[in-house]
Amino acid sequence: MDTSRLLFLIFMVITTSECSGTTEPKCQKMDKRSYTLLEGEAFYLEPYDVASGLSDEDIEWYKNETKIPTDKNENVHYHGEALFFLNLLPENSGNYTAWETDPSSGKCYKYDVEVNVVKSSYMKNLLYGEIKNSDTNKMIPCPDPVKKTCQRLKGKFRWNKDKKPLQSRHEDDLWIDNASKDDEGIYTCICTWTYNGKEYNSSASRELKVEGNTSHGSAKSTAASRKGKLSITHR
Ligand SMILES: *[C@@H]1O[C@H](CO)[C@@H](O)[C@H](O)[C@H]1NC(C)=O
Ligand SMILES: *[C@@H]1O[C@H](CO)[C@@H](O)[C@H](O)[C@H]1NC(C)=O
Ligand SMILES: *[C@@H]1O[C@H](CO)[C@@H](O)[C@H](O)[C@H]1NC(C)=O
Ligand SMILES: *[C@@H]1O[C@H](CO)[C@@H](O)[C@H](O)[C@H]1NC(C)=O
Ligand SMILES: *[C@@H]1O[C@H](CO)[C@@H](O)[C@H](O)[C@H]1NC(C)=O
After folding, report:
1. What is the spatial distance between Cα 54 and Cα 34, in angstroms, rounded to a whole number?
2. Are 112 and 27 in contact (CB under 8 A)?
């Protein structure tokens, strides 16, 4: 036996014993995420932390042991790392699992995603984190899943306040300058995106609360919050 084969054998013994020493399953389990979504809308879902640019062969999506198809005409299908719901139906609620295999390392990852489809009357369920701070100018970030949808699919942002459209506001982070009590309400970020030749809407809302008067030095904190725009963690 030559040296390289011997080294290979030693390597095999080490790796095998490392694996058998733990109860780790073959796939690394990633954090589970839950989404509450509106019936009739579309949803583009990338699991948190997934690599981007995967091919349909690198990943497989399942709902309760049934494989999700890759056919773009199916209401629920996947393409690359993303799961698409073209028209959310109550029966689409459930637990979805993606298994990703990295072809270069052979490593495997498991992503669990829970989806709950509700009718619009359950508004409160649908709210992402509320905005409540003492800043004079308020920044309302478009909630992550919708922001990501628009970025990935080159969609267009729109905003509603209490279901009424805000004219010519097409930014992902909505700024309300000199916010007053009148600005309180539910702000909905809507992304209109085109996929496979058709248009879809996805939305997500946040509530803005405006506290009493701001303390002195608000001008300073405003500048700081504008600067910090990029480092704010959304959700
Ligand atoms: C999901 O799978 C479990 C066990 O495999 C089964 O008991 C259950 O009926 C399934 N649910 C649906 C909605 O198919
Ligand atoms: C997802 O699975 C959990 C735990 O098994 C279960 O409690 C929950 O009801 C499931 N969610 C849906 C939407 O079926
Ligand atoms: C906000 O308030 C400041 C100070 O009262 C004022 O100078 C500024 O013009 C206001 N900005 C807007 C957009 O109303
Ligand atoms: C998206 O929303 C706009 C404005 O509410 C509406 O006109 C359009 O029909 C919607 N598109 C779809 C596909 O639902
Ligand atoms: C806010 O400031 C204005 C003018 O400085 C004052 O009239 C008002 O009472 C203050 N409101 C609160 C809630 O402190």
Report:
1. 22
2. no
Phi and psi of 24, rounded to 5°? -55, 130
Q: Are strands 164-165 and 173-176 parallel, antiparallel or unpaired?
A: unpaired
Q: For residue 176, which ligand has an atom nearest its CA?
A: 3
Cβ of 212 less than 6 Å from ligand 5: yes
C-beta of 91 in contact with ligand 1 (< 6 A): no
Q: Nearest 5 degrees, angle CA 205-CA 51-CA 72?
A: 70
Question: CATH fold of 25-118, please?
Answer: Immunoglobulin-like (2.60.40)
Delimit the domains of the chain by residue range: 25-118, 123-210
pTM, two decimals, is 0.76
Q: Contact, 199 vs 191, CB < 8 A?
A: no
pLDDT, tens digit (0-9, with 9 covering 90-100), for 34-75: 999 999 999 999 988 888 888 888 999 999 889 999 999 999
CA nearest to 84, candidates 124, 51, 113 = 113
Query: Which ligand sits nearest to residue 64's alpha carbon?
Result: 1
User: Taking the domain 123-210, which CATH number applies?
Assistant: 2.60.40.10
Please list, in sequence order, all residues whose beta carbon lies within 8 angstroms of the beta carbon of residue 223, skipping any fewer than 6 positions away.
none
